[in-house]
Design a protein that fits this description.
By secondary structure, this protein is mainly alpha-helical. The protein has two domains: 51 residues; 149 residues, no CATH class. It has nine helices and no strands. Helix 4 runs antiparallel to helix 7 and helix 4 crosses helix 9. The longest helix has 31 residues.
Length: 220
């Protein structure tokens, strides 16, 4: 039970992820078959829908926008600040900070990660590992979305008796960017809202909020 409690936040959100992914698969399959019936095309079984490009494109387009949000938030909060927001460092603390502040190299403790106690490329890589991973996950899911969306779009063109497009042609056209931008703008709005609202509003006990009695201009 202690192990479950110690990892409760990760487990809870992972279970939510699985539940919503299954839900998306079921309702997406139903919606896809409704569209097939309206166009006079045959319906497909669930297994065929799950390995098809439409489901893959829908999943990947959401993943890439989330990873883009985290990548930008991680990288930009190194240099950009918002006074009073719990999502930001204090004004004046911009930058990578000193080795002593970051507890790396000779300032690392005995329980610090091994690569934090190292030097050279290992320390440099580990110092930016979170941002790099989020960037790679964003690019990977963005590419997966483009490939799946390209296949789904060409299937629609072939059904209409039109010539298939190349991948480069597809990623330069409105359909692909409409899928991307409609997700990006919602993520950017969410980050903006959280950053600003966290200055003035509180949630008692949450690590995403300042203390209830903290001044609006305080950073915690």
């Amino acid at each position: 039970m202690k192990r479950l409690r110690n990892h409760g936040l990760t487990l809870f959100f992972f279970l939510l992820f699985l539940a919503t992914l299954v839900g998306q698969a079921l309702v997406g399959h139903a919606a896809y078959n409704q569209e097939q019936q309206m166009s006079g095309s045959p319906t497909v079984p669930l297994a065929s829908y799950l390995v098809g490009p439409d489901f893959s494109a829908d999943v990947a387009e959401n993943w890439q926008s989330e990873y883009l949000q985290f990548f930008l938030l991680i990288m930009l909060t190194v240099w950009l600040v918002q006074k009073g927001s719990s999502e930001s460092k204090k004004p004046g603390d911009e930058g990578f900070e000193s080795d002593e502040e970051q507890k790396v190299g000779r300032f690392a403790g005995p329980d610090s990660p091994r690569w934090a106690r190292a030097a050279g490329w290992r320390l440099g890589l580990y110092s930016h590992s979170l941002g790099l991973l989020m960037g790679v996950l964003f690019l990977g899911s963005w590419f997966a979305q483009s490939v799946a969306g390209h296949a789904a779009y060409n299937a629609q063109r072939e059904e209409a008796g039109m010539q298939a497009w190349s991948w480069l042609k597809y990623v330069s056209e409105p359909d692909f960017w409409n899928r991307s931008l409609q997700n990006w703008q919602s993520e950017f709005l969410a980050v903006t809202s959280m950053t600003v609202f966290a200055i003035f509003l509180r949630e008692r006990g949450s690590s995403e909020s300042k203390k209830v009695g903290s001044p609006h201009e305080a950073h915690e």
